[in-house]
Amino acid sequence: MNFTTFVAAMLVAIAPLGAADWTQFRGPNGDGLSSETGVPVRMESSSLTWSIALPGRGLSSPLILGDKVFVTAGSGARQDRLHVLCYRVSDGALLWERQFWATGRTMTHEKIGAATPTPASDGKAIYAIFSSNDCVALDLDGRLLWFRGLGRDYPNASNSLGMSSSLVVVDGVVVAMVENDSESFTAGLDARTGVNRWKLDRPKKANWTSPVVFKSPGQPNRVLLQSALGVTAVDPTTGKIAWDITEGASTVPSLVVNQGKLVIPANGITVVEPVPGGSKPKSVWHSAQLRPGTASPVVVGGRLLTLNDGGILTCADAQDGKRLWQLRLKGSFSATPVVAGGHLYCVSEDGRVQVVDPSKAEGVVVSELALEQTVIGTPSIAAGSLFVRSDSRLVRLGGTALR
Amino acid sequence: MARVYSVLAASWMLGAVAIDAGAAALPRKLASSVERLKAVGPEGQGNAAAQAAWNEVAKAKASQIPELLVAMDGANDYALNWMRAAIETAVQRESAAGAKLSLKSLEVLLRDTQHHPRARRLAFELIQKLDASRAQALLPEFLQDPGSELRREAVAQLMTRAAGQTNAAKATAVTTYRQALGFSREADQIEDIAKRLLDLGDKVDLAKTFGWVSKWQLIGPFDNAGEVGFAKVYPPEERLDLTAELAGKSGSVKWFPYETRSEYGLVDFNQAISSLKGVAGYATAEFWSDSARSAQVRLACKNGWKIWVNGTLVFGRDEYHRSAEIDQYRMPVSLKAGKNILLVKCTQNEQTQDWTKEWEFQLRVTDEQGTPIVSRR
Lengths: 403, 377
What we know:
The complex is a heterodimer. Chain A is mainly β.
């Protein structure tokens, strides 16, 4: 081993999660922001590094860890074949694939499918859940660590329109929101074995939002569960409720944490600030003018951006909610915008990648690239690239192709 | 050459013997690991022990794959997934190393319907990877397969053939589609075939094809304001007396006969009683079986519902107005020889949106593959 190799190996050893890895829905911090540099601002046809066909449909975001990109897919007439795939970032080569038979109900609205929720990773394993509430853990080389059939274990835990809540993994616990009209719960699964560390009854109301990890210096981690009733903060290791807000919240777009404050889609946008010590958060501001659609809000450079289903991007001051500008993007939207280098990457349902500079007095579309594919899922950012997962393909835009 | 042939023949025979012997043919350590995979159960039971066992099974050699597929017999749905992942991992590694799977051994297993349908399906997929044209050639053998995945693909192949005949020989295409219809057990495939036949001027009797339970006795409305009626036990749940006059939501109610004319077998309480909100209704039917047998009750409903067979609650669900599709809920039941009594409770909530009007269900009785079982009376 030469010195360079040794240093590289040490860096890998001390950094289980790469700084710019994309490890869950909306990135490493669950806020849609990436510290990645070099992602193309001017998207054009030459930005396409590679595009590969996937064996099934899906909306889940790809995860990127080092030189591996992981993605889930669902296939079969009933979406009852579940796939976890691992590709090489540099050239899109398939490294491994594992398939599973769904054990829970697979019926969904036609717009979504089995592979709607985004997996999560702690750098050691990939934890993937599907609309059928089948949950699987694989190490980064594809070795099966555990399998859970949450829809089989709890037979009324399903949603006939489909489930979409993504996973988070924190403090050795995989948090799965299985919230629906009937057997509704959120579970903390031991990341090593998949067994229940805790299981918390939740409101009997369909819920498509995803959990968010709330980290605060000197305070224990919390997982924020958003539902029609509001937001509940739980201890990820025990499932005990630390505090909750019961003024109601959206059941589709998910809250985002910005500088210690919770930006919650709730009849507009409600911003609250948790209080150290665990009591109920204090209210900061509310705006009924800011109305996210399916896409979750994002905050960049002190600006809060919401995107509705019709493509209206609204920018407000994150301090007080005052509306600054609106911009009509092309197309309809389900994907949450993601951010790198201060630019917003918005992908419409017809696969139009639109790069927006939100920092000016008015929003500006810097570039756009039509992929001409159906894209419902949120893109991911890593390796100097934007990874877009369409209904049939995984596309890498930017970065360096393997020669 | 002769020696090569004899070695191949010997290895094929050895493979066959090993398959017949099942998991016992596996080396003790590997067999023990398989047993640990098959010991997994609900709520992650056995997961910790299965993890190490999985690594052992995933190290299997190409020659051991058929035996591992056989070992899937008797596995529960959790274990089948552990086994599948291990077998695929082993196959990928062995293939990368240049080791070849025995196509013939896989075919033997595939053809033996005594083995688990999912093991056979996996065997088929391995054959597809080894020799796609061979897999296609085998498909017609599975038009009546007990495994739904193999059967579906065989029917799909027949449908493709029919589609190719449409322009040149319509009568032939109709015959081929009709054959496909006879073999198909998947609702979406049946509807697809029916649509294609209609395009060719041949109308399919969908009600007969699906075999809905169409003759019922209904009663209602009972109260479901605030959705409390789902859990409330009304008299039909305690004692089924079709002559009784019962206290309903807004006065006394009686049982009355109802026969659905819908080609989709819809039992429509709105049409039969009235378009109401916050209500519950019951439907009961006699179902006559030639013999005591296992069956499935397949129900679709976007209201709250419960179902009893011969007085035993089978399942219930309190989800409202999300969606419905044919065979949405498949519930295993045991039928008695002679008369069986089906009782369905269907609850409507108080949502007011346009898409919350339906107060209805659809039900059929089938075997495990989805072949309709029709009441003998």
